[in-house]
Fold this sequence. Notes:
Domain 3-dehydroquinate synthase C-terminal: 182-325
Keywords: Amino-acid biosynthesis, Aromatic amino acid biosynthesis, Cobalt, Cytoplasm, Lyase, Metal-binding, NAD, Nucleotide-binding, Zinc
GO cellular component, one term: cytoplasm
Pathway: Metabolic intermediate biosynthesis; chorismate biosynthesis; chorismate from D-erythrose 4-phosphate and phosphoenolpyruvate: step 2/7
Bound molecules: nicotinamide-adenine-dinucleotide, zinc ion
Subcellular location: Cytoplasm
Amino acid sequence: RELVVDLGARSYPIRIGPGLLTTVGEHLRERGVGPERTLFVVTDEHVGPLHLERVRRALEGAGYRVAHVTVPAGERAKSLAVYARVIEAMIRAELDRKSVVLALGGGVVGDLAGFAAATFMRGVDYVQLPTTILAHDSSVGGKTGINHPLGKNLIGAFHQPLLVLYDTDTLKTLPPREVRSGLAEVVKHAAIGERAFFDWLLAQVDAVAAGDADALGEALYRGCRVKAQVVARDERETSLRAILNFGHTVGHALEALDGYAGLTHGEAVAIGMVAAAALSERLGVAVEPVAEPIRALLERFGLPTQVPARFDPARVLEAMRRDKKRQDGKLVMVLLAAIGQPVVVRDVPEAAVRAVLEDCRQQGD
Ligand code: NAD
Ligand code: ZN
């Protein structure tokens, strides 16, 4: 499966399917990367042992010189310290302006390696080789970056890749909790994308959840297509791209209150989408039921749909107020007029948010 992110001279293909990493060299050649250019693979300590050898063999077989660096797994790799280590490894590998960075891993490696590529010698080319389901989202669109101790993704750059090569065979080694987390973003793309995608996902939910290669490949293709279309129309998030934050205002608040160590990103976004959908109904923005269909779909993927009892709605609201996407002190949220019809609401009444958080909260404690 192939689609194109249409950005004029910076357009690039997204290719999705099993076994693509074994021919990565040919894909690079076809994108204009000659064998005289050194390749530098960035991967992490989980993905490296599982998939790096295959990539290296394919690239060396195609005549490239290949160097690599392995970073720690998980969000802590998106730090200034690890970024400095990646740059040091790039210098030691004697890369130059013509070298190409390959990000082999999930969203963490993609964001980190992409940012290293955006800044090394004022910018070198890079390629995304996503290995998580969540990375169908993060590998498309050119947002790269790392975290600062004072906040997530505060340091970054827009830098579009040359190519996204998504080998769905790598997903076979992904832990089940990471699979579910990534599927939350697929549901997000279906909910903001189009009704037909949402209905298709509902019909295919068991095959997708079971990791059926064809159904999962199709789900990722459709998810990437929604993201690619939004990015093509608003590359730098001046307006439309904001709809990609559906479920993320509440989701980010929950993650922050957990110190990024409790719920996974996808779990937090799943709960956030149900809350945003319920809010859409409460405020009369929705012209049809939206919360129940989304809740039902998430539940079938094994994702949480209620705010865990440990979160006090008042504290969630406080964390939402601190979100960097607030504008002029107003609460901005993505709501749904219908499935497939997102609307950005710029002055969401806090009392309604609070009521919805109470409604969506799990009993107990
Ligand atoms: P991740 O990269 O940390 O991967 C999750 C875990 O799975 C890690 O432990 C990783 O080592 C492991 N893993 C990855 N692939 C594997 C495989 N095939 N087999 C076995 N283990 C594997 O996390 P993620 O969920 O992919 O991405 C989250 C990051 O993405 C966050 O930092 C977030 O900010 C970022 N993000 C960026 C964008 C963007 O537009 N740039 C969008 C959404 C999210
Ligand atoms: Zn997300």
